[in-house]
Design goal:
Blueprint: E1 2-5, H1 9-28, E2 41-47, E3 55-62, E4 67-76, E5 80-85, E6 91-96, E7 107-113, E8 120-127, E9 133-138, E10 144-149, E11 154-159, E12 171-174, E13 190-195, E14 201-206, E15 211-217, E16 224-233, E17 240-245, E18 251-256, E19 261-268, E20 273-281, E21 292-298, E22 304-310, E23 314-320, E24 327-334, E25 340-345, E26 351-356, E27 361-367, E28 374-381, E29 387-394
Antiparallel strand pairs: 1-12, 2-3, 2-29, 3-4, 5-6, 6-7, 7-8, 9-10, 10-11, 11-12, 13-14, 14-15, 15-16, 17-18, 18-19, 19-20, 21-22, 22-23, 23-24, 25-26, 26-27, 27-28
Length: about 400
């Protein structure tokens, strides 16, 4: 694991000042007074732009009655495969993914958001210092954005300026090695970055190395450094892809892409360490064929964990044991489309939007909050081809 330092002492001092100013700025922004669902949500859908899609598309969604209104193309940009919103909700960020270094992409793009109309205005874009940025995350203070480069197996971190624009990378880590699958894991492939609930650690799913890395995060300077121990390993050939914390902060869940399995980890918040306690299949026993798992979500109440399967084209619903965080399958539900790369549960917990990348649809399901089970509403969004991510942001 190689680290490249891209900052110096004067930048660290400047960084500390920026953090202090950012905190003041964040607290000066008017808070959202409406309860979740009172005014509805903007729904942003990121896409791949190989075919007819042009970038990021938007919708206005009202959970109280299930109404959804298309807003059209919100921003034209190449392969915005993952999206993240700033804690103050005034800025939105997109990872522009491409596996080829000579093609458009391999950047993170920053946008200003009109909190009333949802409109996006380009601020700037920066290189991710690698290929195929598949995932991004923003720390709890809104001063640092981390990106995972799947194609080249590296992570990078970028300061977020007060105006929402991004600075050049101040931290960079290049992973090295291989995993259990000689074809798909011949080299590193970082696929997810996730800040811990207390904002002290950055956790990274390393698909190519069958590892989950942990980095210490210095909130004053924005610096990242390897934790001790620096990672936990999963079974060879599993390929951890996405991660999610339980709301109580005691457990971390991983969806393993190649093996199509769900892993539960105990999480030691004091030391930022993980210990595997359970692994179950994400596929129904009756499935025969090739399927690759993709997305992972925990409901806000911490009662259920959901994961998607590309091949079986389904979502597994599991219930969470409140005593130890372990999972028990509840049901498998067809996403009514092909290749559910991503899905998201709306902030009220009443609906789930499944993005079927290869069938160019986003299918809406109603969530039974008592059982976790999913029922299709009959609503299918077809405005954005190759949908790759769904993001909800409250209307102010």
């Amino acid at each position: 694991m190689k680290k490249t330092k891209l900052n110096c002492s004067w930048q660290i001092v400047f960084r500390a000042a920026i953090v202090a100013l950012a905190a003041s700025f964040l607290f000066s922004v008017p808070e959202i007074t409406a309860k979740p669902g009172d005014k509805g949500y903007f729904v942003y859908v990121g896409t791949y732009t190989h075919r007819s899609s042009k970038g990021i598309y938007g919708y206005r969604f009202t959970p109280s009655n299930g109404e959804i209104v298309p807003l059209g193309l919100m921003a034209e940009t190449a392969h915005p495969s993952f999206l993240a919103v700033h804690p103050n909700q005034r800025f939105l960020y997109a990872s522009n993914e491409h596996e080829n270094a000579t093609e458009p992409g391999n950047t993170v793009t920053a946008y200003a958001r009109d909190v009333h109309t949802g409109k996006l205005t380009l601020l700037n874009k920066v290189s991710t210092k690698g290929m195929g940025p598949a995932h991004i995350a923003i720390d709890k203070t809104g001063t640092l954005l981390a990106a995972a480069n799947f194609g080249s197996g590296s992570i990078a971190a970028f300061p977020i300026h007060l105006d929402g624009s991004l600075g050049e990378a101040t931290s960079f880590f290049q992973h090295s090695g291989s995993g259990g699958d000689p074809v798909r894991q011949a080299g590193p492939h970082a696929h997810c970055v996730l800040f811990s609930p207390d904002n002290r650690f950055l956790i990274v799913a390393e698909h190519g190395l069958d590892k989950v890395f942990v980095y210490k995060f210095n909130q004053s300077t924005g610096a990242l450094e390897a934790n001790d121990p620096p990672f936990v390993s999963v079974h060879p050939g599993f390929a951890p892809r996405h991660l999610a914390f339980h709301p109580n902060g005691k457990y971390v869940y991983a969806i393993n892409e190649i093996a199509s399995k769900l892993t539960t980890f105990d999480y030691d918040a004091a030391h930022g360490t993980l210990k595997e306690v359970q692994t179950i299949s994400a596929l129904p026993e009756s499935f025969k064929g090739v399927s690759r798992s993709a997305e992972l979500q925990v409901d806000r109440a911490g009662k259920f964990v959901y994961a998607s399967n590309r091949g079986d084209d389904s979502i597994i619903v599991t219930s969470v044991n409140p005593k130890d965080g372990t999972l028990t399958p509840v049901e498998f539900v067809s996403t009514q489309g092909k290749t559910p790369r991503n899905f998201a549960i709306d902030p009220t917990g009443k609906f789930l939007f499944a993005a079927n990348q290869e069938s160019d649809t986003v299918v809406i399901f109603r969530v039974d909050q008592k059982t976790g089970k999913l029922t299709p509403t009959g609503q299918v969004l077809k405005d954005a081809s190759e949908p790759s991510v769904v993001l909800f942001v409250a209307v102010q």
